[in-house]
Write a structure and sequence with these properties.
Layout: H1 2-24, H2 31-62, E1 64-65, E2 71-72, H3 81-93, H4 115-125, H5 130-137, H6 141-155, H7 159-167, E3 187-188, E4 193-194, H8 195-211
Antiparallel strand pairs: 1-2, 3-4
């Protein structure tokens, strides 16, 4: 778990640097160019979080060790990623897993970054470190949910997805909302940080706790 944790941290640092760069050139760029840059950043960061979450679950289910050297024994038979993938997909969709079945199609896997789905997956797999994972991932539950809402709205912009963005405004000090990308500059009243930076912090804290 040491490798996947430090990989996430490095990528999150780069995402934070990109956000700072975008913030610094806002006044010298068109509104549309800024939205395009932010949309790319949000989508990239969401994929980083999803990849980490998948690797965390796979390592926990197939067996490994935490950063502190605690052994996590495998919990699936056969001990193969395709079996983990199948059980995860069943758990996320609310269907019982059948004995011995596997899935090797990545497109059929669940949305790994969604913490609500991760809770179902972890319970479905019943990993040896289940309680530690559930406790750790709860740290990032709200932030990952909000990032996913913004990311989905930029990818599928319509009245329905934009309404979901409006619904999360009470959690922040909101300056403006002309486009879903404006949400990254809202301020989290709990820490005074821009929403995007606050999301990153929560995800890093969750990853730290989940892999320790």
């Amino acid at each position: 778990m040491r490798i996947i944790y430090h990989r996430l941290v490095r990528r999150m640092i780069k995402a934070e640097q990109r956000f700072s760069s975008i913030s610094s050139i806002q006044e010298n760029s068109s509104r549309e160019d800024n939205w395009a840059r932010i949309e790319s950043l949000i989508n990239h960061t969401w994929q980083i979080w999803c990849l980490f979450s998948r690797q965390l679950i796979m390592t926990s289910a197939l067996g490994g060790a935490t950063r502190n050297g605690i052994c996590v024994p495998p919990c699936v038979t056969p001990s193969d990623w395709t079996r983990v993938s199948y059980i995860a997909n069943c758990a996320a969709s609310g269907n019982p897993a059948k004995f011995g079945k596997t899935n090797s199609l990545l497109r059929k896997e669940p949305t790994w970054g969604n913490v609500d789905k991760l809770v179902d997956i972890i319970n479905g797999l019943n990993t040896a470190n289940k309680q530690a994972l559930l406790s750790a991932l709860s740290i990032a539950a709200r932030s990952s949910d909000h990032m996913q809402i913004i990311r989905n709205c930029t990818a599928h912009l319509c009245g329905e997805t934009f309404s979901l963005v409006r619904d999360i405004r009470p959690y922040y000090n909101v300056h403006i909302l002309r486009h879903p990308c404006d949400a990254v500059f809202w301020v989290d009243p709990n820490n005074g940080l821009h929403a995007f930076i606050s999301w990153l912090d929560d995800m890093r804290q969750a990853a730290d706790a989940a892999t320790s």
